Amino acid sequence: MSKVKRSWEKRLAGEPDKLTVDFVESLSYDKRLYKYDIVGSIAHAQMLAEQKLITNDEFKKIKNGLIEISEEIAAGRFKFDKQHEDIHMAIEAAMIAKIGEAGEKLHTGRSRNDQVAADIRLWMRDEIEILRAKITLLQQAFVKLADEYADDIMPGYTHLQHAQPIVIAAYLLSFVEQFERDYIRLKSCNDLLNVSPLGSGAIAGSTLPIDRKSTAKQLGFSDISYNTIDAVGDRDFCVEFIFNCALIATHLSRFAEDWIIFCSSEFDFVWLDDSFCTSSSLMPQKRNPDLLELIRAKTGSVYGALIAMLTILKGQPSSYNRDLQEDKVHIFAAADTVEACLDVAQAIVSTAKFNTEKISSHLDEGFLDATSLADYLVEKGVSFRKAHGIVGSLVAYCEKQKKKLSRLSLDEFGKYVTVVDKDVYEYLGAKNVVSKYASEAAAGPKQAKRQIVYWKKELDTRYLMLDSRKRRK
Ligand code: ARG
Predict the structure, then answer these.
(1) How far is the CA of 437 from the centre of ligand 1 (A)?
(2) CA distances from 256 to 178, 337, 398 (A)
(3) Contact at 8 Å (CB) between 87 and 27?
(4) Less packed terminus of the chain by CB within 10 Å, N or C?
(5) 1: buried, middle or exposed (CB in 10 Å: 19+, 13-18, 0-12)?
């Protein structure tokens, strides 16, 4: 290892052991924060100039040096050396090497403890935007598919048993709702994390006349944090961010599980595009939904990140401890995994087809219209509990006779209940049932179509907004 200049070399004798260098470094993974570290440093330097702690000339030199370093990193020209421990030290050392003494003033009134806390928050704000854009794209894919199947009926399942008929669109829109909550949760995570820890120093702030509000304003934070001890030790927002990722992963895993089942020969409800299937090295006939299985599995990795982050914080002494360095391992892993899963899910949904013929052939099974028949009896004046019992007996009778409810004669109905008339047949059969759904947001075609109109408009405007905000950066 060649010797590097370290800011603390006057304090510690000799060189650190190789084990130390390898073990404490975070540069290998925190270098992805470089842009945020540099904008944070420019804001800090500008504030130092405003407060006359450095001259305007020094500020300009620092700023230009940092911009050059940013360009070198972006172009892959920067030589990272893990002996610098982390991205903060790597950039500072490079800047001092570039501009000399002025560079040595950048760290005035600052510690890596408040610096890293600010960097992560800046990174997370952007990452939240990216995740929200990807969620929107996935929602749009679901809505588009829903639009294609707004009148097609499928069995609705509870306990994975036939429950009541629903339109395929309503089933697909159920995912749009889940991801909508994730979208909103990410926004509120962003609102909570958007305060500036800069100026908190190592733990206690500074005796120098630094202006925390200036850096906060320059970096677009909505406020500053109001306790420096808490500010350097707070990683609540990392837990919350990973939790949001974990819940997105949960939703994705439930979708994946449904479709894995729907792709089986027994169901054959969904057809995935060849480009998103894999095959077997042995069995030539196979078309496997491996991507969906991996989405399901990766949920475990995101949960792992959440538990890791919580455990890193649990029982940790107040303020900053080096334990906190590990936060990045887990926030990056959670974000990367969920980003990839959202992309894959969107691609799969955008290219999938529902096998409506096969689905229709199942609609006569499992007495999907039994609840509708009970509702019919209620409309004829029978109490719901009695109606439930009567329909239960009719279903048991049908099972023995190998009949459907819709195939029973009025005489057969008459053996169990007196109020049934020939209008009963309008309530039987899956198609009749879904068209009879009357309550708001029910799983029928009328309601689904209304929701599709709503979502199309909402998501189109939203995507444009997200996009333009990204463009402005
Ligand atoms: N790499 C460190 C981290 O990510 C930066 C802060 C180190 N601070 C310190 N006092 N050792 O947390």
Answers:
(1) 59
(2) 14, 15, 35
(3) yes
(4) C
(5) exposed
Residue corresponding to tokens 């089942």? 261
Q: Quick one: DSSP state of residue 162?
A: E
Angstrom distance (rounded) from CA 470 to CA 473: 6
Supply the residue whose CA is at minimum distance from atom 5 of ligand 1. 112
* Ligand 1 pocket mutation, candidates 91, 322, 326, criterion most atoms within 8 A of CB: 322
What are the backbone dihedrals phi and psi of residue 196, each rounded to the nearest 5 degrees, phi first? Answer: -90, 125
In this model, does residue 4 exceed pLDDT 80? no
Helix then strand then coil, in percent of the chain rounded to 5, is: 65, 5, 30
Tens of pLDDT, residue by residue over 317-370, are 999 999 999 999 999 999 999 999 999 999 999 999 999 999 999 898 899 999
> Residue 217: which region, alpha, beta or left (left: phi > 0; alpha: psi -120 to 50)?
alpha
Write out residues with Cβ below 6 Å of ligand 1: 26, 30, 86, 112-113, 116, 322, 324-325
247 alpha carbon to ligand 1 midpoint, in Å? 29
Alpha-carbon gap, residue 45 to 424, rounded angstroms = 79
Q: Give the C-alpha separation, 86 to 29, whole Å.
A: 9
End-to-end CA distance of the chain: give it in Å, rounded. 39
DSSP-derived secondary structure for 109-158: T--HHHHHHHHHHHHHHHHHHHHHHHHHHHHHHHHHHHHHTSS-EEEEEE
Q: Residue 117, Cβ neighbours under 10 Å: how many? A: 24
Q: For residue 280, indicate whether it is catalytic.
A: yes
Cα of 325 vs centre of ligand 1, distance in Å, is: 6
Considering the candidates 2, 159, 265, 468, report the single residue annotated as catalytic. Answer: 159
- For residue 26, the ligand 1 atom closest to its alpha carbon is 1
**Euclidean distance between CA atoms 456 and 199, whole angstroms:** 45
Catalytic pick from 188, 222, 280, 383? 280
Question: Mind listing the pLDDT tens digit for each residue in 310-320?
Answer: 999 999 999 99
Question: Separation of 94 CA from ligand 1 center, angstroms?
Answer: 18
Q: Apex CA 44: angle with CA 39 and CA 48, to 5°?
A: 145
Identity of the amino acid at 118? A
* Threshold 0.85, pTM exceeds: yes
Q: What are phi and psi of 160, to 5 degrees?
A: 60, 25
Catalytic residue flag (residue 362):
no
